[in-house]
Amino acid sequence: MHIEYERDTCIGMFQCVAEWDGFEKDLDAGKAVLVDGEEESEDLFVREIPEAAELDAKFAARACPVDAIRVYDDDGEQIV
């Protein structure tokens, strides 16, 4: 399972930070940061989700008010 995060779409509500420690606040930029995320393209970051954190990562994606976060299963299907 992996997570994708569009930093450009983020509006800095930081609800994802409250749901999962895989996100941190960047107060200078006013946006969240995907911890250990790899930049796939401009402002798109991707990270594998540890099995123990899958539920929290899903909550983080659901909590995002602008849908900047998506979760995909191992087959590449979007689940959140």
Automatic annotation (TrEMBL):
Keyword Magnesium: no
A family per Pfam: Fer4_15
UniProt KW keywords: Electron transport, Iron, Iron-sulfur, Metal-binding, Transport
GO molecular function, a single term: iron-sulfur cluster binding
The protein's name: Ferredoxin
